[in-house]
Amino acid sequence: MASKRYRLEWLKLLLGLVVLGSYLSWSVVERRLSVEAQEYKRLTAQTQIVDNYLNDQLAAISRVLNIVRNNIPDWRAANDSMAHANHEMEEYLKALTDVRNLSVYDRNGTVIASSQPELLHKNYQHRAYFQTTLNDPSPDTLHIGEPMLAVTGLYVFMVTKRIVDENGEFDGVVLASVDPLRFRTTLASVNYADDMWSALAHSKGKQLLMIPEQEGQRGKNLAQPGSFFTRHIESGRDTNLLTGTVYATGEKRVMALRTIRPSGLYLDEPLILAVGRDLDAVYKDWKRFALTRLIFFILISLVSCFLMYRVQRSKRRTEKAKRASAALIQQQNEQLNALNEELRKLAMHDALTGVANRRSFDERFELEWRRCRRETLPLAVVMIDIDYFKAFNDHYGHVIGDQCLQSVAQQLQQYSARGSDFVARFGGEEFICLLPNTDFDQAAQYAESLRLAIEQLNIPHASSEVSGRLTISLGFAVCIPGNDSASTELIVKADECLYRAKAGGRNQAVGVDGCGAPG
Question: What are the CB-based long-range contacts (under 8 Å, 24+) for 313-316?
């Protein structure tokens, strides 16, 4: 009753600690969810800021390209042909802070007008952005070209629109060369923490810009399996919040990704924006909060358990003394039983190999003999002798010889997997296997399997006259025990077969059925 009362008291204490721990755990989880929600909200808001800026810039670029395209007929009709166009495009360029160059290409890819006169008359027919615009029949599509390395060593991307003649046929390309480095101020403005960085990439994967800049990031292909970029694209969503390892930098971060796709513009390839923070920095305060709750819970648990222990200790002392006396008697009985069991095991098992010994085999053999005689079942005995084992011992020493015996015994045990099979050390280097309900063919197959198994152990035997590795000879006998036959006859026949196997050259199995000659 006292023990039950003590357990009940501890149960109540543990229940109280569980309730307290559950509350503290809930507060920690709730704080983490709050941190996540707040951080996700802020990151999403930052991407929206950049999205608004880029929408305005792309819309402005699209408007200027439309103006340039609409003015081309008047420029061509002017006395100075396209010369006036260069000056006007220089003026348009002043209104586009992120554009480095405005150019007009004819249908063959030759620059016929440009805000950079040094580009005039150069041909860019084979450039990807020109071919993309050429092959898209829609004059309304705003083509965002894949980033390319300019002669300045910086990555730029081309924004183009198709020019068509009065028949709707392709008549050239109007182009704006955008320098993403001019987005630096906008991207930097959304990094509200020291551990943040923002990045802009083309939808085909090439990275345009990262702020703060990191070596080797410009022009990096982010379209890799499992990357944040690929996961965002494959989701089909315009916005995503992802947590994990960033492919580009190898950092653990939480990232907000957004596809820049201005409404009202027909973009063929959008831009992908990523804004993120370091996970450790995001959860730094939360980890401190969680640690304080954990320490508090541990201290409360230790103090309450210590007090419970002190209260119950005086009551336990008397009961402990009584239990100690009873336990001592029980322990001595258990030790005695264990010793008896160990003695019985030692008496029935071979100390070196761990398999049964001769005495154990004799007892088991008599039981199986009577059972097979009663049920009219065949009984097989297989005797095994290690070939030239004395020479093995003389050559390698008794320590290696003992290891050899253990390996052979282990292999014999492994190949005697049936519950009724029985393996014993018969003496010296001889072993014996008892196989109830096993006919002659089965016994022959079993003996041959044992011979091959020992040979395949590949134990070196330099002193063997049969092989360079350890081998065994086997003799087996099978019979159905009868009322008029003695059990020892079966063992004698198996031993005779073993003798014939050794006399016949060793490393072989010779057997006999209960009434026949060796086979």
Answer: 315/2, 315/6, 316/6
Tell me the sheet residues that pair with 382: 433, 476
Confidence of residue 518 (pLDDT cuts 50, 70, 90): very low
- Domain positions in the chain are 1-282, 358-513
Tell me the three state secondary structure of residue 28: helix
- For residue 510, pLDDT over 90 is answered with yes
Contacts with 442 (C-beta within 8 Å, 6 or more apart), sequence order? 380, 435
Nearest Cα to 30, choosing from 38, 41, 18? 38
Handedness of CA 283, 289, 295, 298 (dihedral sign): negative
Transcribe 54-65 into DSSP letters: HHHHHHHHHHHH
Tell me the C-alpha distance between 354 and 350, whole Å. 5
pLDDT interval class at 512 (50, 70, 90): very high
Has domain 358-513 been given CATH number 3.30.70.270? yes
DSSP readout, 49-102? Answer: HHHHHHHHHHHHHHHHHHHHHHHHHHHHHSTTTTHHHHHHHHHHHHT-TTEEEE
Spell out the alpha helix ranges (H) of 102-219. 128-135, 184-189
- Please state the φ and ψ torsions of residue 124, each to the nearest 5 degrees: -125, 30
| 3-class SS of residue 188 | helix
For 5-35, how does the pLDDT look when each residue is reduced to its tens digit (9 = 90+)? 878 888 888 898 899 889 989 999 999 889 8
Rounded Cα–Cα distance for residues 179 and 155 (Å): 7
Minimal CA–CA distance to 260: which of 161, 157, 177, 174? 157
| Residue 343 pLDDT | 66
Contacts 24+ apart (CB under 8 A), 252-256: 252/278, 252/279, 252/280, 253/277, 253/278, 253/279, 254/39, 254/40, 254/43, 254/279, 254/282, 255/43, 255/228, 256/40, 256/43, 256/44, 256/46, 256/47
Location of structure tokens 């046929």: 169
Query: Active site includes 429?
Result: yes
Residue 254's closest CA among 232, 277, 273? 277
Confidence at residue 516, expressed as pLDDT on a 0 to 100 scale: 44
pTM: 0.55
408 token code pair: 């052979």
What is the tens place of the pLDDT at every residue in 39-81?
888 888 988 988 898 888 889 889 999 998 988 888 887 766 6
Q: Which of 169, 363, 375, 429 is catalytic?
A: 429
The CATH code that applies to domain 1-282 is: 3.30.450.20
